[in-house]
Amino acid sequence: MFYTYVLRSKKDGGWYTGATDNLKKRFSEHNDGKVYSTKDRGPLELVYYEACVDKTDAFTREQYLKSGMGKRYIRNRLKRFLTVAL
Fold first, then answer.
1. Domain assignment present for 84
2. Domain limits at 12?
3. Total number of domains constituting the chain
4. Residue 82 binned pLDDT confidence (cut-offs 50, 70, 90)
5. Which end of the chain, N or C, is surrounded by fewer C-beta atoms within 10 Å?
6. Short-list 74, 20, 57, 82, CA closest to 28
7. Measured CA distances, 73 to 31, 46, 68, 77 (Å)
8. For residue 15, what is the enclosing H or E element?
9. pLDDT tens digit string along 3-24?
10. DSSP-assigned beta bridge partners for residue 6
C-alpha cells in the first residue's frame, strides 16, 4: 500500500502534505527532524491519510491535495474534527 498524508504542526499550525509506502516510518522521520521540509516545525500530528494500491495514485493524490482545490477539500473534510482554525 501507498499513503497520501497530511500533517499539522503543533508549533505553528502549518500543514504538510506527502506520500509514502511506509506511513509509520515516515511519520517518525518527520517528528525526529529527519525531513528537511518539517525539521523545524515539530512536533507534528497526523490529521489525515488515504491508502492507495498504486504508487502513482498516491503521488498524484499528493499533488492534488497540495493544489488550491485540494487544500479546500481537506479543509472542508476536516473542519468538524479539528478545533483550531483551518
1. no
2. 2-78
3. 1
4. low
5. N
6. 20
7. 25, 17, 9, 6
8. strand 15-20
9. 999 999 999 989 999 999 999 9
10. 17, 48
